[in-house]
Amino acid sequence: MPDVSILDLQLDNPVIVGSGLLTDQERNIRRLIERGAGAVVTKTIHPNPPQGLDERIVRLPVGMLNSTTYSKRSVNHWLDVLRSFAADRLPVIASLHADSPAELAALAKDVEASGCRALELGISCLNEEDGLEDDNPDRVYAYTSETRGRTSLPISVKLAIGEGLHDRVRAAIAGGANAVTVSDTISGVAVSPTTGGLELDGAYGYSGPGIKPLVLAAVWQLRRRGFDVPVLGCGGVSSGRDVADYLHVGANAAQVYTALHTEMYDTLDRILAETREILDDRHEARPEVQGVAT
Questions:
Q1: Active-site residue 125, yes or no?
Q2: Are 97 and 139 in contact (CB under 8 A)?
Q3: Neighbouring C-beta atoms of residue 123, cutoff 10 Å
Q4: Whether 193 contacts 218, CB under 8 Å
Q5: pTM higher than 0.85 for the full model?
Q6: Whole-angstrom Cα distance, residue 114 to residue 117?
Q7: Catalytic residue (choose from 6, 15, 93, 125)
């Protein structure tokens, strides 16, 4: 399987484990890398994560709804963990967010001092109190540029698909982003068959197979309109074919997360094996595969 260069990381393959509950523990991250993940993104580190929320996951036939937000582990805990990863030269990307651009920039500076080599700014979390109502180019630029001013680390800004995506991508690039991750979760609801009310009591983040065609279209449109920023495609990856599809519409790598909630390590093994078979076959037939370093 061809190597991949993304965020100044040289990865053995283009399959990256995305940020979430499964990447909130050091042992999980290490094991995922041992099992072959090209890289792993930590659960989002936040200096003041909300407390006392009823954070839950609802499994759906076509994915998952979740009302989770950020890691409840302290920044100091994560800095110790990131130092350990750095000492072992592990391909770990720290996901970060904060309540203001200045706070995020300060957090990024501390994370850089830990030896961590790359960042993903999780600034579009749907499950914050105000959701994505205020997610706009000015906000994206403020968080990205302030962070860029305090760190030299490669930065990917994680953005949700939807209205104004192209303008938000432009804002991230103008702010100094080295890449974008597309997409964060999108708004979704599920109706309880027993009560008739909404599961989780509201609209929260949907992820899973249903989002994949939408994200593929978004990545394809970015490339068609001339955006050459590296893209980490994220949404609905559950097979090697899904990974290859993201690469062929122009993504440089693909993140997998929701599928790993079922038999995490075995599922990752399968996706990696399928990806390897597809990309090796295609690489032999056509050396220049979109999104894959040759």
A1: yes
A2: no
A3: 25
A4: no
A5: yes
A6: 9
A7: 125
